[in-house]
Specification:
Elements: E1 7-9, E2 15-17, E3 21-22, H1 28-40, E4 45-47, H2 55-65, E5 73-78, H3 85-99, E6 104-109, H4 117-132, E7 136-142, H5 146-155, E8 162-166, H6 174-183, E9 186-190, H7 196-199, H8 210-219, H9 223-233, E10 237-238, H10 245-252, H11 261-268, H12 285-288
Parallel strand pairs: 3-4, 4-5, 5-6, 6-7, 7-8, 8-9, 9-10
Antiparallel strand pairs: 1-2
Helix pairs in contact: 1-2, 2-3, 3-4, 8-9
Length: 295
């Protein structure tokens, strides 16, 4: 049985599936198969990034799936080494070429790059140009904190449709999410099932959390499914990553149950306010600059 995600309305009227497949850290040789499997299971949103070095394989997976291009929402991100007006326009060409598409549904700036925010602003103005020209259907940002968003909003014209940020039960970023709600920006959760808590040194896996497991037992679902349902019920988009067909199928099987108010309150109470990913202010060209190959 295939299962299709509900749609969320972006601030420019474009609809985005609430649940999608993320391919961060998916090895290129496994990515095409994961994408094709996800589309077969009912996913209609695929999230990648230039810095993941697997955009070409995402495009291969889309074509392998046999799905029509307009049926699948593709989003990718511009890396910091391609910030700047002309460089970002060219970054679109590189990503579109690797994906094998003429238009990208959602294009994000991957990081705020606070140490060179002038380049960030020029990059976002390039996204505005791509939007105006119809090369992308929506634009947004990723890992922007309140101060970054406020400056961006003050100095550009188009309110980002999305801010893709780390959100899972252990790190919920409620202040930032409230700002999104006030400004009409959709919160999209990366590491939505706390996977980053497993692969960073010293982390504990949310998949083993006793509260999440107990809630899952009550509904006949896994801890991962409970977390994804939590995101959906709170109005977020979520992009869990997996390359295993069984896990990909499990992650999309979350539309046939509902968490109670007590369930949601118990999950909300797990917030530790501890970021597991890198601090956005630590992302600099000197430390994280890497060349993005041509298409």
């Amino acid at each position: 049985m295939t299962r299709h995600s509900p749609l969320l309305l972006l601030n420019n009227g474009v609809q985005i599936p609430a649940l999608g497949l993320g391919v961060f850290q998916s090895p290129p040789d496994e990515t095409a198969g994961a994408v094709a499997s996800a589309i077969a299971q009912g996913y209609r949103l695929i999230d990648t990034a230039a810095a993941y070095m697997n955009e070409r394989e995402v495009g291969d997976g889309l074509r392998r799936s046999g799905a029509a291009r307009e049926e699948v929402f593709l989003e990718t991100k511009v890396w910091i080494t391609d910030y700047g007006y002309d460089a970002t326009l060219h970054a679109f060409d590189k990503s579109a070429g690797k994906l094998g598409v003429d238009r990208i549904d959602l294009l994000l700036l991957h990081q705020p790059l606070p140490s060179r925010f002038d380049l960030t602003l020029d990059a976002y103005r390039a996204l505005e140009k791509l939007l105006a020209d119809g090369r992308v259907r929506a634009i947004g940002v990723s890992n922007f904190m309140p101060e970054h968003l406020e400056r961006l909003l003050a100095e550009t014209s188009v309110v980002p449709a999305v801010n893709q940020i780390e959100v899972h039960p252990y790190f919920q970023q409620r202040t930032l999410q409230r700002l999104h709600a006030e400004r009409g920006i959709l919160t999209q959760a990366w590491s939505p099932i706390g996977g980053i808590t497993s692969y960073r040194a010293g982390g504990t896996s949310a998949l083993d959390d006793p509260i999440l497991r107990e809630i899952g037992l009550q509904h006949g679902k896994s801890a991962a499914q409970v977390m994804l349902r939590w995101h959906l019920q709170e109005g977020r988009s979520a992009i869990p990553k997996s390359t295993r067909p069984a896990r990909i199928a499990e992650n999309v099987d979350v539309f046939d149950f509902e968490l109670s108010a007590d369930d949601v309150a118990a999950i909300d109470a797990l917030d530790s306010s501890v970021r597991r990913g890198p601090e956005p202010d630590s992302i600099t060209l000197e430390a994280y600059g890497r060349a993005i190959p041509e298409a």
